[in-house]
Amino acid sequence: MPTVLAVDGNSLAHRAWHALIDERDSGPWLAGGVVRMLGSVWRYGRYAGVVVAFDAPDSIRKARHPGYKASRPTPDPAFVGQLRNLAHLLAACGFTVLSTPGHEADDLLAATVAGAGIADVRTTLVSSDRDLLALVSDRATLLRPRRTMADLAVYDPAAVRAEFGVEPTQYLELAALRGDPSDDLPGVPGVGQRTAARLLRSWGSVGALYAGIRDLPPDLAARLRDSRGDVERNLELMAPLAQAPVDLAATLANGVDLAEVRRVLAPVGLGPAADAFRRAVERGPLPPMPPPPLEPPPGTAAADPPAPRAPLHLDGIQAALFS
Questions:
Q1: What is the pLDDT of residue 291?
Q2: What is the pTM of this model?
Q3: Which residues pair with 6 in a beta bridge?
Q4: Cα(231)–Cα(175) distance, rounded to whole angstroms?
Q5: At what angle do helices 105-119 and 9-19 cross, to 10 degrees?
Q6: Cβ–Cβ < 8 Å for 48, 3
């Protein structure tokens, strides 16, 4: 079954913006950084097409709740210009670029996962946003950058359960109880990830939790009652806004045309980024690590240890992105 790569364009753009501060010039340098990052994801799989989703400048969520993300600084105008160039160049490369007025990348990625279900393909999502954990399923995996793009946490349903203690379908309810300071969304005081997970395992859902609130310890019940408005607001803001499923026919038809990527990027000074992308795509996934050696039977010599992998050599731009 083919897999579509679905990427949070704003997430990667912000990483490139901060990682390449010494590489900035008057050209569309941000696109070069993002294209290199896209190539690095091929270490985790092979992809039949690429979707890149972007936040719209306006926000339905902020219009409804002005405090949402209120502490975030106004974007640098130079970043906004680079982001516009990035979207234009990615579309010219043959990738599917999505942006809808008032919506965020998360909304469009949720619609992409829905479209993948209709098209009978798998989805690999790439984003720093934990809310996308709610989209993880047997046919949708999330790659979430940790410190760098060279270190991606891989989330399938088992990984979500292991780290957060709930099913992916319960993740947004966990987040609503816990809150999300990065989005200026307070949760229930004293309820962190472990407590929220325990409550959801016991009650199944936030609705059932509030329905049975009389059976909870008095202090916890009081905090839940006092914070009910915050929890309901969090659920509203964290859930994807309704979108029609993305039709992936064109995405799959376009595929990943390495020659077209170079034809588009080379004239604007991004030939090295196109070449790095091509090498990464052609190299494909890393081979699996060998299993640990078994203890030799008594009286036999131990096998030689596996040869170490060759070190990864990075140029200046790659070092900024991946170190």
A1: 64
A2: 0.87
A3: 51, 125
A4: 9
A5: 130
A6: yes
Give 98's strand partners: 53
DSSP string, 259-304: HHHHHHHGGGT-HHHHHHHHHHHHH-SPPPPPPPPPPPPTTSPPPP
The structural domains of the chain, with segments of one domain joined by +, span: 3-163+241-254, 169-237
- Tell me: the pLDDT tens digits for 82-108? 999 999 999 999 999 999 999 999 999
CA 75 – CA 73 distance, rounded (Å)? 6
H or E, element range at 145: strand 140-145
CB of 33 within 8 A of CB of 20?
yes
Q: Distance between CA 137 and CA 160 in Å, rounded?
A: 10
* Residue 140 Rama label (left phi>0; alpha psi -120 to 50; beta): beta
Class of domain 169-237 (CATH, top level): mainly alpha
The total of other beta-carbon atoms located within 10 Å of residue 153's CB is 11
Pairing of strands 122-126, 3-8: parallel
Q: Rounded distance, CA 213 to CA 90, Å?
A: 50
Arch. (CATH architecture) of 3-163+241-254: 3-Layer(aba) Sandwich (3.40)
266: its two tokens: 């080379």
Cα separation, 159 vs 207, in Å, equals 25
| Tokens found for residue 146 | 């940790």
Q: Is residue 73 over pLDDT 50? A: yes
The DSSP string of 37-61 is HHHHGGGG---SEEEEE---SS-HH
d(CA 323, CA 208): 45
Q: State which amino acid sits at residue 174.
A: L
| Segment 224-275, tens digit of pLDDT | 999 999 999 999 999 999 888 999 999 999 999 999 999 999 999 999 999 9
Instruction: Name the phi and psi angles at 68, rounded to 5.
Output: -65, 120
* Partner residues linked to 50 by β-bridges: 5
Q: Helix or strand or coil: residue 251? A: helix
Is the alpha carbon torsion for 24, 28, 34, 40 positive or negative?
negative
